[in-house]
Structures are given as structure tokens and as C-alpha cells.
Amino acid sequence: MLKRLGVLSIALLFPACASADDLGWIEGHWRSDSDGRVSEEFWTNGEGGLYLGVNRSIRDGQARAFEFIRIIETAEGAAYCAQPGGSEAVCFDQVSSNAHSITFENPDHDFPQRITYVRDGDALTAIISDMSGEQSISFVWTRVDE
Q: pLDDT tens across 114-131, in order?
């Protein structure tokens, strides 16, 4: 009985992991455009437990980089799998989430090891970092109405 109460107490302290149904705030077309540099991210809805995303970077009118991304439902919550340049997928497990943010980690990956997405109104921010947070890069996009 005490063991069950301990598990229940822990469950109440830490919110449940997000499912794909909880991530509707990431859907859509996101873009930043500054000094000849364009960064875009597109996300589908999570129908069927799968969000599909693509990221594209353009500099001086030329595509310089792209990435295929997916967020999938797992038994533990969600996982973020990225394929920069179409390479083999590297996956990151969800470690936390709330109504408008989600964080994924893979401590065995070189960089990044942590990926966080935060939605604030019409802005979507992605922060990639190492586990310490000392090395960190942020990408901020604005929602594009289509």
C-alpha cells in the first residue's frame, strides 16, 4: 500500500508526458527572415500519433540546409527524431512538457543533446543545447498565415 502511495505521489508531482494529441500548438508554417537569411519550419497535425516536420535554411536566395523531423508517440510519451540533410534519424526522448512547450533529450548524442520547443502567441522558439546548457542555439520563428 505504501509503495502505491509513493508512486501516486510522484505521479502527482510530475505531469504526465505529452501525447501527440497535446502538441497541436506546434502545427503550421513558421518563418524568420533577417539579413538575407531565411529559416522555416513546417509541421503537420498529429493525426495518427505522428507529426511530420521539415526545416529549411536559405541564405542569399540559396537553400543551404534542410532537415526532416518527426514527433512520434511512444509508450513513455513522445520522441523527436531528426534527419539533418536527410541523414539517418537521431531520436530524442521527451523529458518534460506543459501546455505550450516540450523538451526532448538524448545524452548520448554529440550535439545537440537537448531540444526544446516553446510556443508564445505567434512565435515558436526552438532551443538546441548540450546537457549543461552552456552551448545553446535558439531559433525564433513567426507564424505564417496561409
A: 999 999 999 999 999 999
* Alpha carbons 10 and 113: distance in angstroms, whole number: 26
The single-letter DSSP state of residue 22 is: G
Measured CA to CA, the distance from residue 29 to residue 51 in angstroms comes to 13
CB 112 within 8 A of CB 131: no
Q: Is the pTM of this model over 0.70?
A: yes
Question: Considering the domain boundaries, does residue 11 fall inside one?
Answer: no
Q: Which domain holds residue 115?
A: 17-144
CATH of residue 86: 2.40.128.20
Count structural domains, the chain: 1
Q: Are 144 and 31 in contact (CB under 8 A)?
A: yes
